[in-house]
């Protein structure tokens, strides 16, 4: 009699455990069924040039605008073309040179998967529009080839919010294209305003900003360029000139 009672009790315990397990697992299975696994995110940094911004000193200009390339678009899409073998890259940098310990600029061939240019630099003394030019003795850009450029500014002092060393960076795409005979003919007879308009219409933004110092001398052309870039708030900011290259 005692053994029979124990057997019945054991069966009851097993049934109770089974019911509990089913009660727990069923909602979990329903939850998993309603939220299937997401496909892995493809790592393709070349498709979306981007920029990041952190605190780098306290001397930003009164425009309160961030460090930005002189290209149309947003921080997720800085991409344009050029006809130049050795183009010039222009950036608006609102930092004092003492706030930036050093900078680095590199150019990467997306087809050949290799870096064709890299340099370290210091900023000019005055914040403003700053340029970096691919040297004439460097490998030229190939026609119908896309390159990814990267610029990094390393902060001199720690971020006051995190007490860690900060940096600011931007990435973008430049593609060299062939100059068509028709466009070449138009450029040969064009004045500054007409040349600027032709470059913009053909998405040759790196060429449009190449003669920035000359364009700045003419207020109408200068403002038209900044409006096309949606950067007209920078109209009064100075041109600082080229970065100061450091020996690698």
Automatic annotation (TrEMBL):
Q: Which Pfam families match?
A: DUF928
Residue stretches spanning the membrane? 7-28
Top-level taxon of origin:
Bacteria
Give me the ranges of the annotated region Disordered. 35-61
UniProt keyword annotations, A-Z? Membrane, Transmembrane, Transmembrane helix
Record's protein name: DUF928 domain-containing protein
